Amino acid sequence: MVVHMPTLYVGVIGDIVRSRQIAPHARSALQRRIGRTLQQINSHFALSLAAKFLITIGDEFQGLLRDPVAIPDLVRELEMNLPNTSLRLGIGRGALYTDLGEYAIGMDGPAWYAARGALEDARASRRFGGVFVGFGPKEDQVLNGMARVLHHVRSRLTMKQRELLEALLQDETQAEIATREGISKQAVSKRARAGGLEAYREAEAAWKLVLAATKQRSPSQE
């Protein structure tokens, strides 16, 4: 007898810390920026998405992924496009009870329960960089620990260092970056060392390997 395992998805729910305390005109501008960022996310991560991101209530937004390996890149892109904000993210893995739609709205199932629980955990514990639930007991612990450390590093980078990190993660060499920026290779190397960017790149690669391994796990293994 063939047992068909349910398809597992990754729900992502995010919101902005203390957004209700922002002045009305500034909050309106923030919502427009969130909307533009989500359009960009939907374009850049189209192959990894099961349902597109959208704003739901207030400054809360959500989307549904097929491929969890996209999460580190997605988190960085959200942070890069929403500077000077504190972003909470709940990331939950599980099945769906309802059909997929084009946008991540009107759906129900364990993926969303896990993501909502993760967001509430992020609120209660003031944890940033993403809180993971539903990937497996040990996997959740590893993913959450790595998320904390990597966010700690990112939060201390200057904008120039963030831009350099993005280039390195796109596999640009330091020599190529130096040529493009019109600076010396030594200056690029110094900036990378000051931010610990090579160490960050290795750690994020390991983070993605853990996420890739969770794709092989079925609910019965957890």
UniProtKB/TrEMBL annotation:
InterPro entries: RNA_pol_sigma_r3/r4-like, SatD, WH-like_DNA-bd_sf. It comes from Eiseniibacteriota bacterium. Pfam families: SatD. This is Uncharacterized protein. It comes from the Bacteria.
